[in-house]
Amino acid sequence: MLPFFAWAQNSVTGKVTDNDQNALPGATIKIKNQKTSVISDANGNFTIGNLANGNYTVLVSYVGYRSQEKSINLTGNSTLNFVLVQQNFLADEVVVSATRASKNSATTFRNLDKAELAKNNLGQDLPYLLNQTPSVVVTSDAGAGVGYTGLRIRGSDATRINVTLNGIPLNDAESQGSFFINLPDLASSVDNIQIQRGVGTSTNGAGAFGGSLNIQTTTRRDSAYAELNNTYGSYDTWKNTVSVGSGLIANKFTFDGRLSRIESDGYVDRASSNLKSFFVSGAYYGKKDILRANVFSGTEKTYQAWNGISEEMLVTNRRHNDFTYDNQTDNYQQDHYQLFYTRNITNQLVANAALHYTYGRGYYEEYKEDRKLSDYGIPAVVLGGVTQITSDLVRRLWLDNDFYGVTYSLNYTPQNDLNFVLGGAYNEYKGRHFDEVIWAQFANYDGSGSIRHRYDDNDAFKTDFNIFGRANYQVDQFNFFADLQYRRVYYSYFGIDPNGNPGQQNASLDFFNPKAGVTYNFSDKSNVYASVAVGNKEPNRRDFTDSNVNSRPKPENLTDVEAGYRTQFSNVSLGINGFAMFYKDQLINTGKLNDVGGQTRQNVPDSYRAGIEIDGRWQIIKNLSWAATATFSRNKIKDFTEFIYDDANGALTTFNYNNTNIAFSPSIIASSEINYNVLPNASVAFLSKYVGKQNLDNTSADTRMLSSFFVNDIRLSYNTPLAGIKNVGLSLLINNVFSTLYESNGGTYPYLYAGDLSRSNYYYPQATRNFLLSLNVKF
What we know:
Layout: H1 2-6, E1 10-18, E2 28-31, E3 37-39, E4 45-51, E5 54-62, E6 65-74, E7 78-79, E8 82-84, E9 109-113, H2 114-118, H3 126-129, E10 136-140, E11 149-153, E12 161-165, E13 168-169, E14 190-197, E15 211-217, E16 225-233, E17 237-245, E18 253-264, E19 273-285, E20 289-303, E21 309-310, H4 313-316, E22 329-344, E23 349-372, E24 381-383, E25 386-388, E26 390-415, E27 418-440, E28 453-475, E29 478-496, E30 502-523, E31 526-537, H5 541-545, E32 556-568, E33 572-593, E34 599-621, E35 624-645, E36 652-661, E37 668-679, E38 682-691, E39 694-695, E40 705-706, E41 709-722, E42 725-735, E43 743-753, E44 756-765, E45 770-778
Parallel strand pairs: 1-7, 1-8, 12-15
Antiparallel strand pairs: 1-4, 2-3, 2-5, 5-6, 9-14, 10-11, 12-13, 14-15, 16-17, 16-45, 17-18, 18-19, 19-20, 20-22, 21-44, 22-23, 23-26, 24-25, 26-27, 27-28, 28-29, 29-30, 30-31, 31-32, 32-33, 33-34, 34-35, 35-36, 35-37, 37-38, 38-41, 39-40, 41-42, 42-45, 43-44
């Protein structure tokens, strides 16, 4: 009988109401320090089952009300009711609510809160903290997750993933990618993230083709705090973070700040990183309004590991780096300024507005051998009677850009079952691109004696306007939504005119992105949904600058169909989502050259991604849980033509393919996290990630492939109060515990000379077994 009593399963039932005894449906009820959570039903009732005897703290939260917690010594089934008090001020969540999906939305998403992010926030870049979410693949140039990192969702790279910080676009206006290296340790100032896969809801910034990351930074914390977080790990990796906050002062003001430093030598030889950042935020909370200002900045200096290594080098020296010049580095700083105002105009109408400004500047420096001086506007040099027309040299390629604008939203709820959102933004970008030779073995420059010779200087200007409207209507158990967005892009850039002459060019593009869906609620814990959404996306900078108005690629178009089922029991949550993404004119590399001999992306008429995603969690027993995701997909281009030019005579060879795989789109992606609480304040987790094979190009050739990989990590954590300190936390993350040899990224290029065709692959090897050890102290 002893085992029966030891594992006796009890339940806690109760009801959540307000001061007037009105039920609060949709309240979140959690067991503190565990992942167990449920949602109250239409009558405010809830049940948490499968609880062993012991002491528990139950926490209840509901938007617009103060959270409440109660402790209970559980020896059998028990009843615990909660009466929540309405807050006298708005919550920060309304700032991002216009561009987010809710639990009844007919789209697929995953929410990550601060506590979940903190578990793995030991120094690796933000994409690595998302690695256990569905359909995600991450990679690192330096091999260990510090420095330049990459993120793909459903096979779509960063240029097709829309990223916003508090509703403000983060994607670069020209390249359209998001570079988290410019904001090192951003995760330490993040309160929550919503990841939407597919087109998702209307948002600001570049079109979302693979997904969206909607990031909300620091929100209100009522109590003053201070936190020291220090990490040391393999490859001489260090992370030092200091965070402080005032708590709520005079029931109106809060101030928060963070200072961070991250350094690492990298797994790849010389792939070092030296990263620094700060974050400062201040807010005013009134009964009907919020005013918040954020100022944050990041600087990075990384030794380049952009080129990967050859296939042969994978066998002889996986940590090899082709670069040997001492200062082959990337150097960049980005400053962000954000000002938000939220006003509860009436009980039914909430308005948000934000002003923002981002200033970025920096360069990368590189050594080049035997370059034609004429290509850099440098006259030939005569030395000892010999005319030198080529030279070794060092060059710097500079960026200096400004990005600023306004975003807004109006949320109108005339009745409980009806909601309207009107939102949008206007942003401007000014980018200066200029390049310098700072040293040459043979050089005359311009005779001024300057050590810097500017050989290229061009400017770009871009405007991005969008407006969207969304309506949600609840009819019995059905929830209907319609979402309409209009977006206009204007781009002025230095490119090529129809006659092949360089000069300032411009383009204007108009996009209409409709979306619609329906959700059927079986109960407050279970629903099915279906939606269809259209997305459009402009070409990037290189697509424009490397073509003229007649050869310019067309914008990409995507129709995204999603359908799924979500359910939650007392100990199991499960989401199953099917997707079909139909592309028209998707832009891919084909090998075709432009007018000046550079590689260009070309439109392919028809391609698609289709698959199923599973995202679940099972609280097996009180101390043991298992979370897992899996994606199974087909990613195809119906007709693909590869172009290869003969370097000997310029002749063109083409190869035609049918129904080929889209590059870097694995058909299987899966993750698993098994977590066991050894003690109430100590846990061990076993994390696994499987990524199927990926093609390096769009030909489906087995000789140009990233092999599948299965990588496992172990995370140990211990937290305890100590001598008046709120919490002392120790975390040990052992990455790739079985030292699997794998490459998560790569590329390939063909070479044809005098009819002789060869192909070369290159890869980005990832670190073998390595560790990060963290000490976190909270006051």
